[in-house]
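re: the backbone from monday

yeah here it is again, tokenized this time
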């Protein structure tokens, strides 16, 4: 197939979507597909990442609240690019304006919307958590009208989690498919590095008998890094805990202040190397996750593949991955309960033993197979 991915969330400075897109480009090439990822960019440059796998920029403005990201603002230009690349299938990764533009494109290619984000969980349910979710859905009925419009104009809405897929169906979308993500093979217990672990603890003023916690994600309110940092500080009054925060974002200054106050938190910044990330994951004593709005929670899957216990909210895609004996959950958004849950972690470096994780190649074989069904059906019609 010739696939075009209209990817509104791609940023050259990293993030979960970039990690996913980089893997998609490699696997599409290996599986014999041609793929072009259209991204909002400062230039119209086209770069070949692997044979038949391209990233093509569309000049676009920066986001006002996070200048590392840009957004598609010209539907006509987007339609021009789709006509230019003549895809058999178009994947859209954002439910906002780019999805509306793809829905209205007059080309013949089949199309799907991949739910990399869950806007209702990330924003509306979080802002109005004191209300019944059904009431919140009613307040945001225009969003659900928009989603049903997209459902009617796409061959499928693809969710990486069962929980989100069921919620989409409950709100009237009839063509929802669930295709879970997977992890790269480099994430394994073999990457564990005791020297790295002990050096990170030493930088926090702690000895090797302490517990090293890791949190990975964009430093943004919906990811709740401040909740994690405050919970670690609270739990740290009862036992030796240290936290390494990996990521960048708008909350960095606030978190730097929290880190200075606690003395047990270190901001590591963005880690672009996947080998380095695998070493961090495998060397930590536990991964702590704050976001209940994840559609999958790739970093949680990566930690579990390394045999690292996880502490996750009791809602969302990350919670779906928690298995008995492999970590703990806590009530989403509750700092005090998270602090109490951290105190339940075994002292020192206790491994859970890696399971048999779903791999990234499994995900892409299933996803591209689904797209192939659409193109075959369209050709036969």
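seq for it, each position gets an aa:
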């Amino acid at each position: 197939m010739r696939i075009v991915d209209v990817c509104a969330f791609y940023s050259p400075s990293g993030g979960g979507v970039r990690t996913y897109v980089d893997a998609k480009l490699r696997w599409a090439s290996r599986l014999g597909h041609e793929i072009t990822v259209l991204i909002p960019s400062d230039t119209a440059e086209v770069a070949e990442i692997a044979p038949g796998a391209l990233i093509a920029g569309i000049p676009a403005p920066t986001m006002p609240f996070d200048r590392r990201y840009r957004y598609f603002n010209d539907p006509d230009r987007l339609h021009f690019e789709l006509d230019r690349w003549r895809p058999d299938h178009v994947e859209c990764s954002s439910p906002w304006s780019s999805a509306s533009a793809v829905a209205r494109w007059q080309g013949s290619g089949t199309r799907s919307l991949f739910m990399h984000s869950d806007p209702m969980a990330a924003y509306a349910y979080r802002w109005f958590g004191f209300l019944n979710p059904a009431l919140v859905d009613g307040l945001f009925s225009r969003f659900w009208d928009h989603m049903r419009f997209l459902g009617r104009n796409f061959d499928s809405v693809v969710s990486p989690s069962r929980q989100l897929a069921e919620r989409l169906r409950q709100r009237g979308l009839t063509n929802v498919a669930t295709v879970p993500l997977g992890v790269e093979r480099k994430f394994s217990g073999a990457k564990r590095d005791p020297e790295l672990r002990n050096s990170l603890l030493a930088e926090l003023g702690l000895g090797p008998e302490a517990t090293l916690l890791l949190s990975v994600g964009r430093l943004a309110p919906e990811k709740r890094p401040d909740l994690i940092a405050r919970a670690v500080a609270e739990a740290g009054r009862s036992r030796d805990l240290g936290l390494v925060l990996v990521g960048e974002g708008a909350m960095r200054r606030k978190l730097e202040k929290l880190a200075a106050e606690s003395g047990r938190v270190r901001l590591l910044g963005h880690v672009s190397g996947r080998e380095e990330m695998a070493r961090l994951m495998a060397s930590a004593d536990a991964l702590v996750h704050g976001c209940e709005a994840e559609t999958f929670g790739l970093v949680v899957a990566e930690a579990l593949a390394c045999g690292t216990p996880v502490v996750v909210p009791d809602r969302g895609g990350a919670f779906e991955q928690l298995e008995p004996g492999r970590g703990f959950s806590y009530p989403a958004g509750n700092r005090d309960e998270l602090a109490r849950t951290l105190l339940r972690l075994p002292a020192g470096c206790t491994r859970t033993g890696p399971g048999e994780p779903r791999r990234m190649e499994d995900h892409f074989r299933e996803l591209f197979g689904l797209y192939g069904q659409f193109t075959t059906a369209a050709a036969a019609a």
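The chain has a mean pLDDT of 94. The longest strand covers residues 34-41.
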